[in-house]
Amino acid sequence: AATPSYSIATIPADGIGPEVIEAGVEVLQSLSQHLGTFKLNFVNYDWSSEIYKKTGRYIPDGGLEQLKKHDAILFGAVGAPDVPDHISLWGLRLAICQPFQQFANVRPTRIFRGTQSPLRNASTGDLDWVIVRENSEGEYAGQGGRSHRGKPWEVATETSIFSRHGVERIIRFAFETAQRRPRKLLTVVTKSNAQRNGMVMWDEVAQEVSQEFPDVTFDKMLVDAMTVRMVMKPESLDTIVATNLHADILSDLAAALAGSIGIAPTSNLDPTRENPSMFEPIHGSAFDITGMGISNPVATFWTAAEMLDWIGEADAAKYLLEAVEKVCEKGIVTADLGGKANTKEVTAAVCEEIQNNI
Ligand code: NAI
Ligand code: MG
C-alpha cells in the first residue's frame, strides 16, 4: 500500500506560538522521516494579531474553506498585549472551533517521568486524567448583551446555553473516552445545586447516557468540590467531563498540578470528522517570555502526538511521547520545569531521541 500522507495546516499566530509551532513541525518531520510509515505536508497560515491590526480581520475571505481541506490543524496561541482578549479569542480560535463544530475539547494531563508535581505526595501515575470540555455552547455561546454603556446603571448579561443535543453528544463522547481507558471511570462535573436548569439537565442526561455504557463507572461532582478532590485525591480521578467554563478552569488547574502549563496539550475535535480537528498547546501566547527562546515546546510535542493519534497514526504518537518523556527524564527541560535548557535544546534532544532510539 502507498504511504499515507496527511495535509496539516499550521497557524502559529501570536507570542510564543511561532516558536513552539516551529519546534513542533521540526519534531514531527523528524518523526515521519525516521519512521517512514507516513508523510506530512505542512501549509502555514500567517493569521495573527499582527494581520488583524493591519487588516481588521484575523481570517481572510475564503480562509475557512481553505482550512477545511486539511486533515488537521496545528495551532499556536492567539492574544496580543494591544488587542483585547475577547477580540483575539473570538476573531481566530473560536472563529475556527465553532463553525467546524469542534464540540469536544480534550485535555489529557499526567505527571511525566522526570518532572515534579507541586503536590507533595503525587508522582508519576498518581495523576493521569483526561478532561473533556464542552466546546460549542454553554457559558461561551456568545449570548448576551450590554445596555446603557458606561452609565452607572449599565447592565450586561452573559447567558449560558445548554441544548439537550449539545449536552448529550459531549457526555456520550466522554463515556466513550472513559470506556477506552483502562480504569473506565468517568466523573461528571456540574454546579447543579446552584444552577438549577441547565446543570440539572446535565445530570439527567448523564444518567440517561450512562445506560449505554454499563462497563463505565460514573460519579458526579459539584465544580467547587471538584477542585478540592483534584488536589487532595488526584488518584481517585480518571476521565472528567464538564461545561465549557468549568472545564476551562479545571484544566488549567490540572496542568499546573501536573507540573507546568508548558506541557499540557488540547484537542478541539469534530468527532463526526466532517471538519478537520484542531490541536494546540493549552497555554497562551505568554508575552512575558516571547522571543527569549525559553518557551517549553513539550506542550506542542504532546499536542502533535494527540494529532497523530487522531489522524490514525497511533504508533507514531506513542513513539513521540516516549521520546519526549525520555528527554524529561534526562533532565533536559526548560525553566518552567526547573531546568536550564532552552526551546532549541529541548527540541534537538527530542529529535535525537527519535533518531537514536526508535
Ligand atoms: P499564558 O498561558 O500565555 O501564560 C501564563 C504563564 O505561563 C506565563 O507566565 C507564561 O510565561 C507561562 N507559560 C505559558 N506557556 C509557557 C511555555 N510553553 N513555556 C514556559 N512558560 C509558559 O496565559 P496568559 O498570560 O493568561 O495569557 C497571555 C495571552 O494569551 C492572552 O492574550 C490570552 O488571551 C492568550 N491566551 C490564548 C490562548 C489560546 O490561544 N488558546 C489560551 C490562553 C491564553
Ligand atoms: Mg483557558
Automatic annotation (TrEMBL):
Protein name: D-malate dehydrogenase (decarboxylating)
Family per similarity comment: Belongs to the isocitrate and isopropylmalate dehydrogenases family.
UniProt domain Isopropylmalate dehydrogenase-like: residue ranges: 7-350
Pfam family, one: Iso_dh
Catalyzed reaction equations: (R)-malate + NAD(+) = pyruvate + CO2 + NADH
Keyword Magnesium attached: yes
Cofactor annotation: Mg(2+); Mn(2+)
Amino-acid biosynthesis is among the record's keywords: no
Broad EC category: oxidoreductase
Lineage of source species: Eukaryota, Fungi, Dikarya, Ascomycota, Pezizomycotina
